[in-house]
Structure formats: structure tokens, C-alpha cells
Amino acid sequence: MKFRFPILIIDEDFRSENTSGLGIRALAEAIEGEGGEVIGSTSYRDLSQFAQQQSRASAFILSIDDEEVSEAEDGGTAIIRLREFIQEIRFKNNDIPIFLYGETRTSAHIPNDILKELHGFIHMFEDTPEFVARHILREARSYTDGLAPPFFRALLEYAADGSYSWHCPGHSGGVAFLKSPVGQMFHQFFGENMLRADVCNAVEELGQLLDHSGAVAASERNAARIFEADHCYFVTNGTSTSNKMVWHSAVAAGDIVVVDRNCHKSILHAIIMTGAIPIFLTPTRNRIGLIGPIPLEQFRPESIRAKIEANPFARAALEQHPERKPRILTITQSTYDGIVYNVEMLTDLLDGAIETLHFDEAWLPHATFHDFYRNMHAIGRDRDNCDESMVFATHSTHKLLAGISQASHILVKEPKARKLDRHIFNEAYLMHTSTSPQYAIIASCDVAAAMMERPAGTALVEESILEALNFRRAMRKVDAEWGEDWWFQVWGPDEIPAEGIGSQADWMLQPNEDWHGFGPVAPGLNMLDPIKATVTTPGLRMDGTFSQTGIPAAIVTRYLAEHGVIVEKAGLYSFFIMFTIGITKGRWNTLVSALQQFKDDHDRNLPMWKVLPEFVAKYPRYERIGLRDMCQSIHEIYRDSDIARVTSDMYSSELVPEMTPSEAYDRMIYRELDRVGIDDLEGRVTAVLLTPYPPGIPLLIPGERFNRTIIDYVKFARDFNRRFPGFETDVHGLIEEEIDGETVYFVDCVRTRTV
Ligand SMILES: *Cc1c(COP(=O)(O)O)cnc(C)c1O
User: Fold this and answer.
1) Structural domain of residue 721, as residue ranges?
2) Which of 112, 113, 461, 579 has CB atoms 3.0–4.6 Å from 468's, for a disulfide?
């Protein structure tokens, strides 16, 4: 495999007919003659754009000549410009070779801070261009040869090797696809390399994921070093699986476990699979439906104890085994709305009180690479080992870093008191790993980690924070220009830094601030990660009251989708976007202008057929309605049913379990069920997980009883869905059936046993 990494030359005279032009062009030709590729430029114009080229280049040659270097103290503007340029490159890249090209006299005038960044000073006309070219190419190759981390390197070598395989997968490096027309299309679309690299775990040179050996193990160690963890495991089935692995390595049937009620489905699946008895910590919610922090008091061992006492199953388990501590605590570290916890404050309370502390950092793999998030993430150089508790962090590498779908990392930080028993851990790992892992995902776990090696990782994170702030500033500017007229708001503190990225302090939640609406949060406990941006639409105020007119987010996000902007998720009057390391200025600017267009179309009440043609093609009933009228009619339904209060109450209602989740699941397996219509749900015990979208947070867990608020919500969803097809609120766990032309909803409930 030959990679393209040209050598970049920046020389004012690159196209000139003078001696220095002739000299540099002779060097460029010599490099090409030796098989290298050259890109020449005549200026540093747009410094930072050029420095971005560091990821595409294998070396820089920067020219400077005698006339440019003055006797001034600072070496004059040429030196200043050179220094800035080199700093810009080194901000991201410590290793790429940089050569200075100039006259002999010049080198004496180059300050030390620049000299130490150079791989050489090339004196014009001292050596032959061919000799210099070979020297530069050698350095450039040794740089690019060092780029690939261990597993990816081994995979490249294997794919290049061209050996015939008799092992699976059966497509034999893609050849099977070539025997069919549709297979040809597949092959051409995904390309030969993807298929050549799709190998099976019989290939010894690549090591084994399942027992963490060879090149895979080397890469896992490399990633552990980069994330500054004691161990790192690559997982090829997403953090859904990473979470189950952590749980199965730490939890047995009947164990008491402490879980963030705002947790991902995979944690609930883990509860069911392990047969654990969950105690829930309840996050706050504000009046516009955003999920806030779990109050600090709830993490105190006394209050966890009180919850155990209040739960009949947990109490019984504790009476049986008074010596056992709660086995695991799982916290969603970075909620879906971007709230993170100070992990030090949590471990101060919990170290030793709970055996394993698990931070589900699906949305936070970037935090360890920047001081901005100091202490606001589970594992890294700023975090000490606990005394007694094992700390796990699970990362969806594919969500915020450069991983392909399902790439996930498990990080471990051992307590001072004990080591991770890797053999026992691997039993759980094997339980959830396919015996045919996808090697492209392993390579992606490897490369995503290598990309974050400092200083590059820090620079990438800084860039995404900066773009997120620039977006927020741009939205405020538009707002200021509209004056009294309406505009979208980005949820966050009232004051944001005027330029740059500011610091963590700017994003901390202070007690009782209006902007967050989470009440008396403990000082220092939480921050909003600014790269997670919740955009709010008019209609619902922070105090939970509805305004006269409103614009539900569901319509805005459909509009955006038809204009090529897909958002991460939508709430009632908010939608969510994220600034990953893949962000570009173009991307968020497109969003801002699409929102401008929406405002314009809305204010002119343009007909739906015009503004949402694809949607109207599916739902012609809305064809002639104006966009503003459409918004208003959905807004009025929301307002009349006080839906914001209902959704926030239903998530904070106290739920006493009738049985453990795993018992409810068993009942389902034995079909001890009634399929109950939603008008008859009061008092019934659900056998399934009930999850409304938005926000996608489980509402009722198997074994819990329906209460009034929850039933009101489900009925609201039914009535709403009847009135506004196409804008359905989706509730996973509801069974829809068509009866006499009407959609009727059911929930599978545990059958009441008659005694
Ligand atoms: C997405 C997500 C997961 C699951 O991650 P996948 O990589 O999609 O399997 C787990 N926890 C949280 C909090 C998530 O948001």
C-alpha cells in the first residue's frame, strides 16, 4: 500500500527566475526524481490553513534568505512569521520533519527556539540537490513509517502480503463479490482494501482480540498509555456491549447495584441479564425537559443506604448478606444534554463504599485530552487511583472521536488496594464478544486512540471547543440583530467568553442559576460540556410556562433534515447538536443559515408543500397548511395538555418495584403476560422497558407499576399521534395494533396471579 504524503515547500521564489528560485526548484526536482512528491507554495498566506496540511504532508521545507533576516533583536518579521508558522504546526504535531532552507549566513541568525524544532538546515548550493533530496526523503519516510499504531500496521502488512486465504470470511478477500452483478456493486462501493482487510481471527500475525494477544494487545497497551489508564480493552460491538462486559465482570445475581435513572438501555439490559437488584439515583430535570445532575446528597453512602432500606428486594438482600457492599455504581457521565460530574467529588464520597465505580462516558472520550475538563471525567493524568474501588470508563469511540460505528473502549483504573484480575475480566469479555470480530473496527479503535496522542489530541479537542463557542457566539449575534423579534437560543450560561475557549469555570453550574433551572446544585460538582449544544425554539419558557405562540422542535428538525442538516436528537422545544473532532466551520455555518431560512419561511407562513416537500409527499393532509400555522397547532396541543410538566413529573415520580427486572423478564419468557390496553394500565406491572422518544430515556423498567402520570403521558402520545401523523411521539415498548382502522396501543404487563 502506497500512501500519499507529499513534501511541502514554502518559498517566495518557488516560481521565480532568480538564483534562489532555481535552487529550490532543483531540490524539488531531485525529490521527485527520488520518487517523492512535492507541493510548492510561494507564501505563508493563511498561516493556519497551511499548518492544517501537517496531517497530509510528510515534511516541510521552509525557505528563508539573507535579505529577509534583519539584525533586529527579534530577527525581523521574517523570523516572527517563521516562528508562528512552526508553532502552528507543532501545536498539533511534534514529529513531522521541518527543514529550513537558506544561505549559510542566515543560519547564524535563527533563534534557538526555532532551531530546536528543526530536523535540519539546508544550506543552499552546499551539497548536490540529489544528496539533500535523499536526506529529506529518509527523514520523511521515517516519520510516516512511525505513524501507524501496532494493530493497524500489522493489518496493512497482512493486506499487502497477497496470500491466498482458506479461512473465513467466505468472500475470500472480496473475490466472491466479483461473481455477481450486485456483488460487483458492493465491491466497487466499499473498495478492495476494506474486503482484503476483512480477515478472520485465524490470522496469527494480527494477534487475537479474544485473548488480547499479539498486535491487538500491543495496540490496547498503546491506547491505555494514550488515555493514561491502567488497562484499555477494544470492543467491537459498541458501548452497549462494553457496559454489559463491565457489569458481567463485577455483578452477580441478587447483588445490589446503584444506577443513574438516566441511564442507557444497555445498563438496564445488564441489570436484567445479571439478575441484580437496582437502586436508582434520580437526576433533576428543568422545566424545559432537560436532564440535570443527580444531587450530591444522593451519592452519600447514608442516602444510598436509605434507598436500600426503602426497596423491599434490596432490603432483603442486605439482611441476607449484611457484609456485602453495593457491587457497582453506574453514572451517565455526560448526560444526553451535556452535563458532566466532578469525578473527584464523587470518588471522595464513594471510594470504598461501592466496589466498582463505572462511568458511562459514551459521550465523553475527548475529555481526558484537555485541561478544560480537568477532573470532569473518570480516568486520565489528572485523576488519582482510588484507594479501594475499581474505576471503569466506557467510551463510544465512534460518537466523538474518529471511530467507525461500534468502535468502543473500556478503560480501567485500578485502586491502590488491588489489581484487576484480567482472567476473570476476560470471562465477561468473552461472553459478549463475537468469535468473528470485525477487524476494521479493531483497527479503528487503534487509530482513533493514536490520533489523540498529545499534542494532537489536545489540539483537536481545543478546536472542537472553539468551533462550539464560535457557533454559540454566532447564534447570539444573530439574536442581537433580530432585537425584539424571535430567534433560536443555545442553552448555556448567560455569559460566555468573548473570544477563545475560556475555561472550565465559565461552564460550571452555580446553585440556583436561572439558565440551567436545576435548583441548588452543589458548587463545583457539574459543568456543561460546551461542545454539546441544545438549541431551544420559542414556545416554552425556562419556568415551564408556555408562550402564546410556539415552534415545536419536531417541525424545525424535519425542516432541517430536508435542507441537509440532520440533528442528533429533538425534544419538545429543543434539539441537540454536537461538535465532535470532525466539526468544520462549514457545517455549523450551514446550520445557522438553514435556521435563518426556517425563520424566514415561518414568519411568511409559507405553505408546507413548498417548505417541506418530501414530508408532504408522505403526508398530503398538511399540503396547504402554512408553516407557522402548523407550528402553532402542535404548540397548542402541547400547551393545552401541559406536556412539559407531564414529561418532567413522570420522570421524577417515585416508583416502587413490584419485582426485580430479571423476574419480570422471566415472566415474559413464560408468557405470564396480559397484553393490556392503555386505558386499563393503572396499577399494572410492566414486563417490558418503556422508553419514550424523545428523550430516549427509559421511563418504566420491567417490574415497575404504572402510575397516573405515566398513563397520562401514554394517552397523550396516543391522542397526539392520531391527530398528527408524521409527527408521532414514539414510545418503545408500546405495541401498536390496527383494529377497525384505528391504531390501538397495548403494553405487555405481568399477569396478575389470582390466589
Ligand atoms: C450511545 C450510548 C451507549 C451505547 O453506545 P453504542 O456505542 O451506541 O453501543 C451507552 N451509553 C450511553 C450513555 C450512550 O449514549
Assistant:
1) 653-750
2) 579
pLDDT of 518 above 80: yes
335 lines ligand 1 (CB under 6 A): no
pLDDT of residue 70: 65
Q: Is-contact 308 325, C-beta < 8 A?
A: no
pLDDT of residue 49: 66
One domain for residues 378 and 406: yes
Give the domain-ending residue among 643, 663, 681: 643
CB of residue 220 inside a 6 A radius of ligand 1: no
**CB of 264 shorter than 6 A to ligand 1:** yes
pTM over 0.85: yes
Residues 420 and 478 in one domain: no
Asked if residue 663 has pLDDT above 90, the reply is yes
Task: Give tens-digit pLDDT for 309-337.
Answer: 999 999 999 999 999 999 999 999 999 89
Instruction: Tell me if 708 sits within 8 A of 668, measured CB to CB.
Output: no
Q: CB under 8 Å to 667, separation ≥6 — which residues?
A: 659, 673, 687, 750, 751
Per-residue pLDDT at 447 exceeds 60: yes
* Same-domain check for residues 50 and 100: yes
Which residue among 234, 239, 269, 409 has the greatest number of ligand 1 atoms within 8 angstroms of its CB, and so is best to mutate? Answer: 239
What is the structure's pLDDT at 624?
95
> Which CATH number do you get for residue 700?
3.90.100.10
Judged against a pLDDT cut of 70, whether residue 397 lies above it is answered with yes
Give the Cα-Cα-Cα angle 633, 636, 640 (nearest 5 degrees): 150
| Rounded distance between C-alpha atoms, residue 232 and residue 217, angstroms | 9
Q: Of 591, 614, 643, which residue sits at a domain end?
A: 643
Cell, residue 462: 481545543
For residue 541, the CA-to-ligand 1 centroid distance in Å is 30
**Whether 662 and 633 share a structural domain:** no
CA 362 to chain centre: 6
511 in the same domain as 374: no
Decide if 706 is inside a domain.
yes
217 alpha carbon – ligand 1 mean position (Å): 24
Q: Are residues 446 and 463 in the same domain?
A: no
Would you say the CB of residue 576 lies under 6 angstroms from ligand 1? Answer: no
